User: Fold this.
Amino acid sequence: MNLFTLAQNIVPQQTLSKVAGHLAKSDNPIIKKAFVHGFARAYGIDLAEYERGSLDDYDSFNDFFTRELKAGARLIDSTPDGIACPADGKISQIGAIKHGQLIQAKGRDYDVGQLLADFEVGKAFTDGSFATIYLAPTNYHRVHMPFDGRLVATRYVPGTLFSVNNTTALHVPDLFARNERLVCEFETKFGRAFVVLVGAMIVAGISSVATGDIKRTPYIQHRTHDIALKKGDELGRFYLGSTAIIVLPKSAHAVWGDEFIHRSVVKMGQKIGRVNSLY
Assistant:
């Protein structure tokens, strides 16, 4: 374990994120301006493609961080068999689920059942497919549907809040299956599928269209739903960034585009693969 990862084991992750959350949702003009303007300056945020073009148009840092795009700023893949990227960011890892294992980083795998917080369900995804997309602080931070589906359940899983990047992926075992996350389960034309929203250090919260803002608890929160969503519809958002993971069953016979590899830059809505089972 390197020093960066070791330090994250020492700091009070939950307390730090809780404090950040209170500040991030504050509408106090001084706090809001300091956070919004400071962040935009530090990361060179360009609002040209966003609906609200001035930093002063946002009610809080959270409002700014989850800012909405202009209509038409992203083209959503329209092919019937296409899998759309759920978020702006970079491909962390992408490929097949071999022997129930997803790739976290080179030489480091983790169990799909652990990620989903259900080992019985995980067994059904042996020989399935996955794609992990990392959202950097500069990215658009809403997560959208990669396919048409009916949201039937969500499962909030409490956990650690390690930062998510190449360093932690290499040094923290089972990173995505240990961090706090929201597991979203769908019924689709090609079988049961999941999109998992993974939290990280300083992430002040996760929200979804089904649950609203998730309240952190030390226990798993399981809820059932019946919500039809189309490819490209908003699914959720992060209050500070992290990772979205698509988990597809073997029955989808998913094929990912050859051009999508580790660190490939992607945009929400673009086609990153296809589901062969529909034809």
Q: What stands out?
A: The radius of gyration is 18 Å. DSSP finds eight helices and 17 strands in the chain. Residues 88 and 111 are 25 Å apart (CA to CA).
